[in-house]
Design brief:
The complex is a heterodimer of chains A (about 150) and B (about 350). Chain A is built from five helices and four strands. By secondary structure, chain A is α/β, with parallel strands linked by helices. Chain A has a four-stranded parallel beta sheet, with helices on both faces. In chain A, helix 4 links the parallel strand 3 and strand 4. By secondary structure, chain B is an alpha/beta fold. Chain B has a domain of about 120 residues. Chain B is built from ten helices and nine strands. Classes of the chains: A alpha/beta (about 150), B alpha/beta (about 350).
Chain lengths: ~150, ~350
């Protein structure tokens, strides 16, 4: 192996995915906070965007994140029935179901976009799911499908 | 019942009956204007026409080139039919299955009032896939198109070619299960020919099964290949009866959501979001594919949407004006097998 190849290999091993996480203000954001306060370790790959409710999340956000080069997207909201706005997450769930199937149909790996529920009391669950999502995205590798070629 | 021998005869019979019905409606002042099809300026084309006089009724036409979805002329973005003295005009629409479905779906979204609209139902037997025939003819100019038996006969200078209609039909028409407007029983005397009542639709979605079985890489390659010719002219949007937003997301410039170039990522994003917006709303008229100047076949995306909505929410668009469309509705027990869960 040449020196360059070794350098390349170590670089790809070093590669860490960047994941954008849309967390709802009332449950998941508080859940993430609890995970932090309880000092539960979870991968530092996620960058959190706080949104009022998972129902606020438009499919634009998710697709825009992918085109802007994020390797993965995580969307998290309150458990069904616990929504602060009564039914925001139920409306969002239908949207996510269709988006996920459509992405798969277009040949974009469905694992890039992950949806989950986590309540404000579930710091541990939040950490576990983020760990899982990070692993999935890590396996998929960098998001190159939306890269513009000049 | 009269035995029908071929396309031409079938269409002629529907056409003459439709004209009679239209004439009667205009005479009795049940409608003020009728939206229908007339002969196009090119062979193998038809164009929409709005008539308000009895003597114009003979301009109305019905054949297998009538692909425009006339419901588009009634959606809010287009000017309304208003008379300065009479107020809102009563409109009659010549409706094949998908036009009827579009009208009913628009009513379920509270965009139009079905009571103000008279649906002249027509059983449709499919629309010719014009682009495919043109592609096979090539550079030669088509001068005349007729039908004989079940074949489409295309004539031009020094050539004549026959195309079997069953094969050269628009892809969505091949799968069409709703050939005449639903709600026949509501308007019993307002349809021509054999219009059926549709209670529920059984669809196996065999046509897209092959594509769905491919790996993500193969799908991505296929999608890229199919959409790479897209010039972003938005003809598909303009022809669609369901695209009635005052400001489309691609025209929005505050904020600019998605790029407006014809680079591959931008094209894919446009079609992805377009599909997202069509979920549970597409009425499978195939107008988007038939108007595409680059001949892109968007039907397979529309079929997938139909499948998702049918399987997940058991909904077929445009059958019942009182059922809420799935994307404006929700249920506590919706499937959520795609959500991330702890092991």
């Amino acid at each position: 192996m040449t020196e360059q190849a070794i350098e390349k290999q170590t670089e790809s091993e070093k590669w860490e995915p960047k994941i954008i996480a849309f967390l709802c203000n009332w449950c998941s954001y508080a859940g993430a906070d609890l995970a932090g306060v309880s000092r539960i370790q979870y991968p530092p790959n996620i960058r959190i965007v706080r949104v009022p409710c998972s129902g606020r999340i438009n499919a634009y956000f998710i697709i825009k994140s992918l085109t802007d080069g994020w390797d993965g997207v995580v969307v998290s909201g309150c458990h069904p029935g616990d929504c602060h706005y009564i039914s925001g997450n139920l409306v969002a769930r239908r949207r996510f179901a269709i988006l996920k199937e459509l992405l798969e149909f277009f040949g974009i790996e469905p694992g890039r976009v992950n949806f989950m529920w986590a309540s404000a009391a579930e710091g541990e669950r939040f950490a576990v799911l983020i760990r899982k999502a990070t692993e999935i995205v890590k396996k998929l590798g960098p998001n190159k499908k939306f890269e513009k070629k000049w | 019942m009269v035995m029908i021998v071929g396309l031409e005869e079938e269409n002629k019979e529907i056409e003459s009956n439709m004209r009679e019905l239209a004439r009667g409606l205009l005479k009795e002042k049940k409608v003020d204007v009728i939206i229908g099809y007339k002969k196009g300026t090119l062979p193998m084309m038809s164009q929409p026409i709005i008539i308000d006089k009895e003597e114009d009724v003979d301009k109305l036409l019905w054949n297998n080139t009538c692909y425009v979805n006339l419901a588009k002329y009634l959606v809010p973005r287009v000017a309304k039919f208003v008379d300065p003295e009479k107020g809102n005009l009563k409109v009659g629409v010549v409706a094949k299955g998908c036009v009827g479905r579009a009208l009913i779906h628009l009513a379920s979204e509270n965009r139009i009032n079905l009571d103000e609209i008279t649906i002249i139902g027509i059983p449709c037997n499919g629309v010719i896939n014009r682009q495919r025939i043109e592609m096979e003819i090539g550079e030669k100019e088509i001068l005349e198109v007729t039908a004989s038996g079940n074949n489409i006969v295309v004539k031009g200078k020094n050539f004549e070619k026959e195309f079997p209609f069953d094969e050269y039909m628009n892809e969505l028409c091949k799968q069409c299960k709703i050939r005449s407007p639903p709600l026949v029983s509501k308007f019993p005397d307002l349809h021509v020919g054999a219009c059926e009542e549709y209670a529920s639709i059984v669809d196996e979605f065999d046509d897209i099964a092959e594509f769905e079985a491919k790996s993500p890489e193969e799908k991505w390659a296929y999608i890229q290949d199919a959409l790479s010719v897209c010039t972003r002219c938005y003809a598909c949007r303009e022809a669609c009866p369901m695209c009635y937003c005052n400001l489309c997301f691609v025209d929005q410039n505050k904020p600019i959501w998605f790029g407006k170039t014809t680079d591959m990522p931008d094209i894919i994003v446009y079609h992805l979001i377009r599909a997202m917006h069509m979920a549970g709303r597409c009425v499978a008229c195939g107008a988007c594919s038939l108007v595409c100047p680059m001949g892109i076949d968007l039907n397979f995306i529309n079929r997938k949407l139909e499948k998702i909505v049918k399987q997940r929410f058991d909904f077929t668009s445009g059958l019942d004006p009182d059922t809420l469309p799935p994307m404006t509705d929700f249920k506590m027990e919706d499937a959520e097998e795609f959500m991330l869960e702890e092991d």
